[in-house]
């Protein structure tokens, strides 16, 4: 698996699984009926943001991450990031590889911390993965997320100093 | 004091004290050299956001607040808000009146909570005001804000259920 900068040519490979994850509405605070155009501009970030893909040797896109400043001005040393992994290619450590990439990128860029603003508490695999990469649950907003089948659940804010 | 929807005609009254607060860089995570054009589009929100001014009987603008969804999709029931009060007219309860207005507005709009994403911990008057209005400090991001004279200080995330 290789992680490299995403280009516009990767979008047709990203959109099908990103759409599936967004449509499910279980793990991200995006509108479930997000259009392809809005999804592309939300995900394919210009500098100082960055979007990457994790690809197999044969070029198959396994997952993607975007990373960007979380705040402006006096808090611009805190980065943010989001991750999408194709369920058809799960269980290969793609999420972990993307997470490690983001941590390295943020450190190289001079960020002092990474903050995840909205990690749905029922997304327990993601929560455990981020914890294993050094992220802490700083707080959980009670009933912060309306899950399509589980009703109102907590929304974690996770943070890792670099 | 009256609180009413802000119109474009109010902007010339808002910009001088908003600029002063942003330039000081002590309380908000905006770029300190924010241009007037960027400030206007950031502050004067279209629906579903809302921007209000607190005005004296003679029409003097004392302060302003903007309110908007904090998240999208499954967390769109959480509102956010920001406040600016003209230091030349401080001590009149303008911040409190604006805060109460925002709470009423958010409740009427069907939000279930209000989340402040970035309250600088050294902004102790604001922290105390929000606490008196029922907001809790959910967590403090360590060294989350670079204060121009006090160095790295904490950044509170505050929350109030409605």
UniProtKB/TrEMBL annotation, chains A, B:
GO terms for molecular function: acyltransferase activity, transferring groups other than amino-acyl groups. Gene3D superfamilies: 3.40.630.30. Residues 1-162 form the N-acetyltransferase domain. Pfam families: Acetyltransf_1. PANTHER family: ACETYLTRANSFERASE, GNAT FAMILY, N-ACETYLTRANSFERASE ACA1. This is GNAT family N-acetyltransferase.
């Amino acid at each position: 698996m290789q992680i490299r900068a995403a280009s516009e040519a990767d979008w047709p490979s990203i959109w099908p699984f990103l759409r599936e994850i967004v449509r499910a509405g279980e793990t991200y605070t995006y509108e479930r009926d997000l259009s392809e155009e809005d999804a592309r501009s939300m995900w394919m970030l210009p500098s100082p943001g960055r979007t990457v893909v994790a690809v197999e040797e044969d070029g198959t896109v396994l997952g993607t991450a975007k990373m960007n400043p979380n705040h402006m001005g006096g808090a611009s040393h805190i980065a943010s990031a989001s991750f999408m992994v194709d369920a058809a290619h799960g269980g290969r450590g793609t999420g972990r590889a993307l997470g490690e990439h983001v941590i390295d990128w943020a450190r190289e860029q001079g960020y002092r911390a990474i903050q995840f603003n909205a990690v749905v508490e029922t997304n327990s695999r993601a929560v455990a993965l981020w914890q294993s990469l050094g992220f802490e649950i700083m707080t959980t907003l009670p009933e912060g997320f309306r899950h399509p089948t589980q009703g109102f659940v907590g929304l974690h804010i996770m943070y890792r100093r670099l």
